[in-house]
Specification:
Blueprint lengths: L3 H7 L2 H17 L5 H5 L8 H13 L3 E2 L8 E2 L1 H10 L8 H9 L8 H16 L2 E5 L7 E8 L5 E7 L4 E6 L7 H15 L4 H14 L6 H8 L17 E4 L11 H16 L3 H6 L8 E3 L13 E8 L5 E9 L5 H22 L1
Antiparallel strand pairs: 1-2, 3-7, 3-10, 4-5, 5-6, 8-9, 9-10
Helix pairs in contact: 2-4, 6-13, 7-13
Length: about 350
């Protein structure tokens, strides 16, 4: 792993400028940046040969790469990470972007999912990337839980909330479960509910797992360990835990090389399955603010080599209940997209707080 902070401190002004201009040029055009191009932009007058020497040093340091010796250079994932952490200048949110996002909130509709859908579409349009919105879980106190076997590898959990809301969620039970063991697990969980929300229940049972691991029913244990309230089956995209994806066609714009099309196909496969939805929220659950995941750092879509800019949003109790993000190629315009994602997360948080 490149120690970006240390490398930046060790680099002289010329090396830092060459590196910064290569990255900025690549982010703007998506093409390698050559030494002759940089001679026109450098703050000091230097020859193309001098710049090539600097580029070679940066390549040796693992910050730049090239397709072949005579080509220009592009930043590596490590180079992009160092740029984002140490040199990225995040701009202010543009007035036009703010107005467009605000317009999605003008409806007085109580249909939160519909508003989130419009927000996702607007975010995709503004950023020209694919937007992702993880809709919040239902956080009312639970009244009752039941497990229903659907086969040897599929089961249904029925959640009845105190406000009358009912959710049916598919999950994969541990091997060897029987209808009898599922009833016992439901009885164990129902004895602990006492008006708690799913988040509260997870905290209580996780503590009991630590204290009484051997006494707790295998199914109840497995359900809590896997998140209890997280979808794991297929076809539940219309549920309250759904991942809203908009603007996938934007990822194809201008990307016609075979490698890029293969990368995007892999990404589309991930998006279609909407697998590991819980991981999307985990990417953002380490605190407030926008986080940037570049290429392989992005564990949800790592195989496609895409970048993800994501921010959590909170409910009225300041609990993280969902996240919004933009996914695209590693050459995203991070400086513009970061404030847009941040502002959108604030809008969604206000929406959830107002509706709760």
């Amino acid at each position: 792993m490149i120690d970006g902070k240390q490398l930046l401190e060790e680099m002289n002004e010329r090396s830092r400028e060459v590196f910064r201009r290569v990255v900025e040029g690549y982010l703007a055009t998506g093409t390698p940046v050559g030494s002759r191009t940089l001679t026109r932009d450098m703050s000091e007058k230097v020859s193309a040969a001098t710049i090539r020497n600097v580029m070679q040093d940066l390549e040796y340091m693992g910050l730049l790469g090239s397709t072949h010796v005579s080509s220009g250079r592009v930043p590596t994932e490590g180079g992009l990470r160092m740029f984002v952490d140490g040199l990225l200048e995040v701009g202010d949110l543009q007035t036009s972007d703010r107005q467009l996002m605000d317009a999605t909130m003008s409806s007085n509709s109580q249909d939160v999912s519909g508003v989130l859908d419009r927000i996702g579409a607007a975010l995709s349009g503004v950023t020209q990337g694919a937007s992702l919105v993880l809709a919040p879980k239902h956080e009312a106190p639970i009244k009752h839980i039941e497990f229903v076997s659907l086969g040897h590898d599929r089961a249904l959990v029925v959640l009845v909330f105190g406000d009358g809301h009912v959710e049916n969620r598919i999950f994969t039970p541990p091997p060897g479960q029987t209808p009898s063991s599922m009833r016992e697990a439901a009885n164990f969980l129902n004895a602990l509910i006492e008006g708690r929300t799913l988040s509260d229940l997870q905290t209580v049972i996780s503590r009991q797992i630590t204290d009484r691991r051997q006494e707790i029913d295998q199914l109840a244990h497995a359900m809590v360990e896997s998140g209890l309230a997280v979808w794991s089956g297929e076809g539940e995209g219309d549920g309250p835990d759904r991942l809203i994806v908009r603007g996938r066609s934007n990822l194809l714009a201008g990307d016609e090389s075979e490698d890029n099309l293969s990368r995007i196909k892999t990404l589309f496969d991930d998006l279609e399955r909407k697998r590991d939805i819980a991981n999307f929220l985990e990417l953002a659950d380490e605190g407030e603010g926008v986080r940037i995941f570049i290429g392989s750092e992005n564990k949800l879509f790592s195989l496609s080599g895409s970048s993800l800019v994501v921010s959590p949003y909170m409910n009225a109790d300041r609990k993280i209940v969902g996240a919004v993000g933009v996914i695209g190629p590693t050459r995203l315009n991070y400086g513009r997209i970061v404030p847009i994602v941040d502002y959108t997360a604030q809008l969604v948080g206000k929406l959830i707080a107002d509706r709760s």
